[in-house]
Amino acid sequence: MCDIGFGFELTKYFMNYPGKINKCPLCLIENESAFLGYRLNKTQGLFPGRDYSNATKVYCCKRCDLVYNHPPAVLPVDSFVEDDSLLTLAQAHSDLGNYEGAHADIIDFLKHTAKLKAGAKVLDVGSGIGRAAYVLRQAGFEVYSIEPKKELYDFANQNKLTQVERSFNRSFEDCDFEKEKFDFIFLEPLNHFSEPHAAIQKALVWLKPGGYLHLETVNKRWLYKSILLFIYRFTFTKVVPFTSPLRKPYNVCEYSAKTFKVYCSLNNLKLSRLGSYACETYIKNKWADKMMRNFMERYYCGMEMSVIVQKQ
Question: What is the pTM assigned to this prediction?
Answer without folding.
Answer: 0.85
